[in-house]
Amino acid sequence: GTVVQSDATWRRFLHPAFSACATQANYRISERSVRFNAAVDIPAWFTRAFSDASWGTAVEKGTPPVSPWGNLARRPIPLWKDYGAANYTNNSSLGLPRAGAATITTQLPYNMQVNARMTVSASSAGLVVRINSGSNIEQNLIAEYLTRGGGGDETFEMPLWLNGDNIRYTIPAGVTVRAVSYRQTGYNTSVAGSFSCNDAFYNTLWQKAQRTLQVCMRDNYFDCPDRERALWWGDVVVEIGQTFYVLDRNADLLSAKSIRELMNWQRADKTIFAPVPAGNWSSELPVQMLASVGREGFWNYFRYSADTAVIREVYSRVRDYMSVWSLGTDGLVVHRAGGWDWTDWGNNIDGRVLDNCWYYLALKSAVAMALLTGNTADTAGYASRMRSIEANFDRLLWNTTLQAYYSPGLTTNPDDRANAMAVISGLAGKPRWPGITSVLTGTMNASPWMEKWVEEALIVMGNETASLTRMRTRYQAMVTNASTTLWENFPASGTPNHSWAGGPLTLLSQYIAGVAPETPGFTAYHVLPMLGSLTAVSATIPSVKGSISVNDSLSATQFVMNLISPSTTQALVGIPKERAWQSVTGNGRPVWNQGTFISGVTGITGAGEDSLYIKFNVDPGTWQFVASLTPVGVTDPENHNVLSAGIPVLFRTTPSAFEVIVNSDIKKYTLTIVDLSGRCVYSFSKEEGEVLRIPYGLLNNKVYIVNCAINGNNFSKIVLLGK
Fold first, then answer.
1. Does residue 401 come out as left (phi exceeding 0), alpha (psi in the -120 to 50 range) or beta?
2. Phi first, then psi: what are they for 96, rounded to 5°?
3. For the chain, percent of residues with pLDDT exceeding 90
């Protein structure tokens, strides 16, 4: 390609059409509102025919790293994505062209980053057209266009980007609007993941979270794209987790950049702070910084990406930050206020419990980072602190009366955030879970940022139904709101596009669809769906190993999982024990029957059972697993009215009883009736065939599995019994 090198032969000129608006954005946003005066524009300055003879010459400043350049770094992320110009969704109803004073509100497909465009005409010069977001009042970024005049068409694309669900054009008298459109831009990544289920509420919530995430990404992650556009790392923790379930792996470049920037701005006293780069803010939020360097932040990024290079690069700085924290004489964490003593928005915050949980999680990750980077000598110090917290956490912070974690001296109710983090950190043992569950289902004080971990804690404790119920309760107003993105605060307030509210996207994909890495980078991963109250779930996960697709459906008699697993991976597949399954097939062939794994299907091997799943190790490929209430090889005699050697048993219902007719030459058989939970409600063994009559009074209008075992063969039927 052509090398372009700037030097003193270049020409320079300050463009006279651009200036600042009188109305400027709030102080948090680095961008400025812009005015463009078309009457003093320099047409065609970029063409070969244009003469720049009157322009001044450029001044050479020297070769980097001399001032003002400093040490330059290669851009670690792709250039912005330009989606091209497009019409607003309501263009046809705007009545264009239209003349005269008016406010034109255009509708975008959803909340996105856009450069607004228009074509106008005016006979007079200097008439001011104003363009701003119609839905983000905190943004206050404005573009002003002063007409050129003369009656001809004037086309303008504002050079700064706005966001929102709509864009507003304020037109003065004397101006005719001929066309309006927009150009979507943003961080260069694409939606590659998906989630859907049989409940529209969760589908809408997932999609709104996806849109919120994308509008909060550009040169860095944002807390929001309207008020600040700043790299608040507490928000980034939640955002990075979402990217692994919805975006292509270009997103990892922005995540790695964000990790490096946070740690490269570490101060001499070893503290870290965000947002960075430093501008008008340099205060540490200690809890958010622990969340960032710990399991939910840096280590979560590594689990999904296997990006060892970034961990190696920042580990020494993480170690330094961990040393800023100390334990008191009681063996627990000494509170640090930092520059802003903020733990979460809202009431009822139990800061002492939260300090210990977040620091414990950070210690866990520090151990893992030390081992990964070869700094094994560091692990002893981390482990010693972990043991101290483990030994004293329950002793000092568990309240036996309240059956909850509750710091002495508090006068409020137990905190949902604190009790959730006790579960997430692993400090709360299973005997504590019933009390914690009561807190998490009855107390709702967490902000959308911490809500992610409250809902996750319920899932970790095996109560995904309660988690989905809480999710619906907390996000109801956001889902039904007209905004296409999620809000900063519950029920739906603050900025209308705050991606720290997107935790449910991760939870629905990671736990409800059940897909997550077992080893860093998905070399091994699991599919362990937790359907809760749902009966159909499908998801696509854009992993670093390739796309993983899973589609689950549950009926009264069957569970079906369709899985597409990418090459160079090993999947641990779990069939959820939602029913008393009698058999499982893999691609149509038996792989498990009545508690016994069956070999012979290449690519599938048994991986054991627990109380929740029947598990299989699965090679790459396309698979269908079907769990059934009928054992493998069972003959259903339902349609046979004549007993024979091939079908030696007949099941039938009469007005007063359920009958089992066994061929008279059968010498030994066993009849069992079980309900769908697997509980046996009737069992009978006999040495010779006969007609068995089971009165409906022994049953109670439920679906049962009736099985007759004869000479090692099972004959089964699923029936509704009782009157």
1. alpha
2. -85, 145
3. 80
More confident residue, 646 or 676: 676
Query: What torsion, rounded to 10 degrees, do the Cα atoms 135, 140, 141, 142 define?
Result: 90
Q: Kindly report, residue by residue over 649-665, the tens digit of the pLDDT.
A: 777 777 777 788 887 67
Contact between residue 545 and residue 521 where contact means Cβ atoms under 8 Å apart: yes
Q: Is 299 helix (H, G, I), strand (E, B) or coil?
A: helix
Reported as type and span, the H/E element at residue 703 is: strand 702-710
Banded model confidence at residue 639, pLDDT cuts 50, 70, 90: very low
pTM: 0.88
Cross-strand partners of 682: 673
β-pairing verdict for 604-609 and 613-618: antiparallel
Taking CA 407 as the corner, what is the angle to CA 402 and CA 408, rounded to the nearest 5 degrees? 90
Task: Give the pair of three-digit tokens for residue 535.
Answer: 């009966």
Residue 442 has a CB neighbour count (10 Å cut-off) of 10
In the block, tokens 């999904």 appear at: 304
Q: Which residues contact 374 (CB under 8 A, 6 or more apart)?
A: none
Return the pLDDT at 723: 46
The number of residues in the chain equals: 723
HSE-up of residue 710 (Cα within 13 Å, Cβ side): 22
d(CA 357, CA 449): 16
> Distance between CA 411 and CA 121 in Å, rounded?
67
Residue with tokens 């007719």: 661
